[in-house]
Amino acid sequence: MKRIPVLLVFLLGILPCWAQQTVISGRILDQESGENLVFASVQVKEINLGTTTNEYGFFSLTVNDADFAGEEIEVLVSYVGYATQSVMVKKGSSKPLKVGLADQINKLKTVEVKATRSKQTEELNSTQMSTIHVPMEQIAYIPSLGGETDILKVMQLMPGVSRGTEGTTGMFVRGGDADQNLVLLDEAPVYNVGHLFGFFSVFNSDAIKDMTMIKGGFPAHYGGRLSSILDIRMKDGHHNKFHGSGGVGLLSSKLTLEGPIVKEKASFLVSARRTYIDQVVSAVGSELPYYFYDLNAKLNVSISDKDRIYYSGYIGKDVLKFSDTEQSEDGSEGALDFRFGFDLGNITNTLRWNHVYSSRLFSNVSLINTNFDYNINGKFDSNNLLIKSKIQDYTGKVDYQYYASPQNTIKFGATLTQHVFRPNVISTSGEISEFLESGDGGKIDFQETAVYFNSDRELIGSLLKVNFGGRFSASKVESKFYTGIEPRLSLRYSLTEFAAVKASYSRMKQYLHRVSSSTVALPTDLWYPVTDNVKPQSADQVAVGFHYLFPKLKTALTIEGYYKWMDNLIEYREGANLILNNNFEDELVQGKGDSYGMEFLLKRDEGRFIGWIGYTLSWATRDFEELNGGKTFFAKYDRRHDLSIVGTYKISKRLTFAATWVYATGSRFTARTGQYLVPNPALTGIQVIPIYTERNAVAMSASHRLDLNFVVKSKEARKFRSEWHFGGYNIYNRATPYRINITPIENGIGYKYEQPGLFGFIPSIAYNFKF
Fold this sequence. Notes:
Blueprint: H1 3-11, E1 21-30, E2 41-44, E3 49-52, E4 58-64, E5 72-78, E6 85-90, E7 97-101, H2 119-125, E8 131-133, H3 136-139, H4 151-155, E9 161-163, E10 171-173, E11 181-185, E12 188-189, E13 194-195, E14 200-201, E15 208-214, E16 228-234, E17 243-249, E18 252-262, E19 266-275, H5 277-283, E20 290-302, E21 307-327, E22 334-356, E23 361-380, E24 383-405, E25 408-429, E26 444-459, E27 464-477, E28 480-496, E29 499-510, E30 512-515, E31 526-529, E32 537-550, E33 555-572, E34 588-604, E35 609-623, E36 633-634, E37 641-650, E38 655-664, E39 668-669, E40 672-680, E41 685-692, E42 698-699, E43 703-713, E44 721-729, E45 741-744, E46 751-754, E47 762-770
Parallel strand pairs: 1-7, 11-16
Antiparallel strand pairs: 1-4, 2-3, 2-5, 5-6, 8-15, 9-10, 11-12, 13-14, 15-16, 17-18, 17-47, 18-19, 19-20, 20-21, 21-22, 22-23, 23-24, 24-25, 25-26, 26-27, 27-28, 28-29, 29-32, 30-31, 32-33, 33-34, 34-35, 35-36, 35-37, 37-38, 38-43, 39-42, 40-41, 43-44, 44-47, 45-46
């Protein structure tokens, strides 16, 4: 079995012969916890040749022995926030390295600090563009709603990512819709990413190690959505010591425990979070019977130097239940019996096997299961109602990474997913069943598969680097078999040591979509596959960028322009009721869309002051023959301007101050501009006919707000550390409009628009600890 991947590589004609070469490979870890360090920098100093670790901390680098005078090769290993370490490797050695880096704050005296390439330099030299990566250490201090650290709301502060309704976790990336984002938690898709109807994300930041968002120039191993990939990786669990962390805030509490099962061989992580909105409201004499919780777990077992197994699991649920009963006058029986219950949740499971076939070939095999469901049940006297919907995914996935040479890294693999949908399961009894019939909604089996290949290689010395490849995807549903060829190409050309230009082209296909009964995405929205009549969505995107690094300031500037054209997009006819309608396909229309714009990002990741300034100038339009008279109209979340300024300043070892200021053009709506009266004897004699603008022709008012966070840390202690967070959301109390109301003018002649705001000033306080 071990010969199969090597044979595949040989058949591809990419297995040359090497003479007098040394292959340096291994893993880069956090020295204390044993966590894999993702995208750590590995550099051979003498010849200025380098690479980075993959998602599992593995790297491979081939060098010519003749380039070195001595018998040893010096390798420098670095990562943001860690002390750089020097490792000596003997020529001809094939033994894999296991390098542990020490935190800069607690670095060992034996660690040798040398100048090396930074994370920003690696990003500059990479072909990958349109990518957002924010260290989790920065996210911990960024101000947030209710003091609850939220990684999705941090993504909304980045250029190219527009938020939906104020305060929610919705993301609209480069003119796309919210259901066009693929959110992965340890490779498992998460369908519902929000708690409390989208105001908080389902991701507990204490359990997260790393996250990366890709908006364009997509690597070939990603697919299935049009607009973005958000790849979130959980922590692996501390390999050497038992540790814990947690926090208490105004809305929720959380606790994370991790440690070794067998020291340096196996570790675990368990992280839990629960809101206590129901308990707080009950304590003041009111009732709000709602809460949510999250539970993350991970097991990490190192079987050998070449084999490692991971299991990751997540369970999250929202629960809302209340009842109201009244007795009859004689007290004999209930005159009113009203009950309502609502719950929805995600479950993910990921089992992964990492294997190192040789110093050049690395593989990862994954088995993934995802479940999303919601249940609504109600009772009113003798009437009973139950509405359910469920999605189950079963995925098998294999990925190979082959390091052919320092100038050529090859990835290839395949994935197969079995989707099982149970939409619109309805059960009724009593009088309500006369107009709402029971139905099982039908079971829909839907297969989706893909194979991919891409090569990342340098040309013209190291001036030009090219990443080229593609993805072939297919889907079987009902009597149709859909296929798609998805080419991918990214280029990087170095102008100077600190400047580069990049360009990319990618095509994406999407074989499922979200069916919503309103313009606001709710947890009860249905995910549904393509059908014989509803074709897969597709998107082509080109992007060009300029990247410049200010080494003395440790600051990077990125300017990108993009154009994306989309086909077979989904829209719904006005007034369609889709949630309780099994024939909702008749209410769908498909059309085209375009989006284009410029993005600017000035970002600093190191030093006492870190943060970024991001600005987006963009347009997003739609074309549907059956909507707006066939004329082009703006997308609902077309925002012309979007500006974010985020900064964190370390005043001293114990004091940190952070601030966020955002400005955005308002979302769009179809305005009612007038009305006229026509005779209609069948009604009251006169019928009022409203007059509307073109679809989404008017923008709501622009909004801006300031958020602050002040962190006070405890005195340094060996076993226990804590910190207090004091802050506020929307400091100057300028509420952001979130809907439009039409109200009569006071004199009774005519109407006017009002834009009620959603959130004013919200203070926050939280206490976090580690031990």
